[in-house]
Amino acid sequence: MKRSLVKNKAFEEQSSDRHEHYGSRIMALTGGNQAHSIICSNLNALLHTQLRKRPSVIYTSDMKIRADQPRKYMYPDVAVVCGESQFEDATRRVLLNPAVIIEVLPESTEQYDRGKKFQYYRSIETVQEYILVASDAQHIDHYRRQSENLRVLTSMDGDDGVLELPTIERRLHLAEVYEKVPFDIEDNTA
């Protein structure tokens, strides 16, 4: 492991804040707004209910994910593993094999989540689905792996939309994902 990676890993483990690489900078992750928090809670509750008796594990934004090309560490809002979870080391702080990754998009990091971060997630062989959930409107973009270099995009809007998740053989109704989310409040987190 490169010396800078060892230093960054030690820094992150000792820090009370969480950090991600953003380009060549390391940035502290800030808390989300009300909509972001409610959507993340809804997603975790819905997935937990649907996957309780299946051999899948749901991780919240506390679980760090490692991408190898280039080696980067990120904290997705939701990650799902099918089968047994694999970790970087015995501390079980860095997950290596997510199958589904969900990011709830604040305006401040949307470009990064759609661009570089998506590129990093694509380098993880186990990732089959990448889902971007808007926090300012009922809109979801769903990328599904078709082959090594091809991802198929499906977008959906509104209360009647249904997100099909073939990797985990489940579906999410947008009305439930966005339940209790107030869209009339201005987002000043940027």
UniProtKB/TrEMBL annotation:
Q: Which InterPro entries match?
A: Nuclease_put_TT1808, Restrct_endonuc-II-like, Uma2
| Organism superkingdom | Bacteria
**Gene3D superfamilies according to UniProt:** tt1808, chain A
Question: Where's the Putative restriction endonuclease domain?
Answer: 12-168
User: Which Pfam family name is an example for this entry?
Assistant: Uma2
> What protein name does the entry list?
Putative restriction endonuclease domain-containing protein
Q: Which organism is it from?
A: Roseiflexus castenholzii (strain DSM 13941 / HLO8)
Lineage summary: Bacteria, Bacillati, Chloroflexota, Chloroflexia, Chloroflexales
